[in-house]
Amino acid sequence: MSTLCRAPSWQRRGFSLKYILFTPKPPTRAFSTSPRGPGLRSLELDEPRLKKLKVNQSRLMDELHHTCQWGTGERWGEQGTETGMRRLSLSDADKQARDWFVDATKALGCNISVDAMGNTFAVRPGRAQGAPTFAGSHLDTQPSGGRYDGILGILAGVEMLRVLQENRVETAFPIGVVNWTNEEGARFPISMMSSGVWAGDIPIGHAYALQEVGGGTATVKSELERIGYLGILPASYEAMPMAAHFELHIEQGPILEKEEQKIGIVKGVQAYRWYTVEVIGQEAHTGTTPFGSRADALLAASRMICASHTAAADHGALASTGILTLSPGSVNTIPGKVKFSLDIRAPSDNIIDKLEKHLKSDFDSIVSTESTKALPLSVTWQTDSISPAIHFHKDCIAAVRASANSVLGDEALSREMVSGAGHDSVYASRRCPTSMIFVPSRDGISHNPKEYTSPGDCAIGAEVLLQSVLRYDGLRSNVGN
Amino acid sequence: MSTLCRAPSWQRRGFSLKYILFTPKPPTRAFSTSPRGPGLRSLELDEPRLKKLKVNQSRLMDELHHTCQWGTGERWGEQGTETGMRRLSLSDADKQARDWFVDATKALGCNISVDAMGNTFAVRPGRAQGAPTFAGSHLDTQPSGGRYDGILGILAGVEMLRVLQENRVETAFPIGVVNWTNEEGARFPISMMSSGVWAGDIPIGHAYALQEVGGGTATVKSELERIGYLGILPASYEAMPMAAHFELHIEQGPILEKEEQKIGIVKGVQAYRWYTVEVIGQEAHTGTTPFGSRADALLAASRMICASHTAAADHGALASTGILTLSPGSVNTIPGKVKFSLDIRAPSDNIIDKLEKHLKSDFDSIVSTESTKALPLSVTWQTDSISPAIHFHKDCIAAVRASANSVLGDEALSREMVSGAGHDSVYASRRCPTSMIFVPSRDGISHNPKEYTSPGDCAIGAEVLLQSVLRYDGLRSNVGN
Ligand SMILES: [Zn+2]
Ligand SMILES: [Zn+2]
Question: The organism sits in which domain of life (chains A, B) (predicted)?
Answer without folding.
Answer: Eukaryota
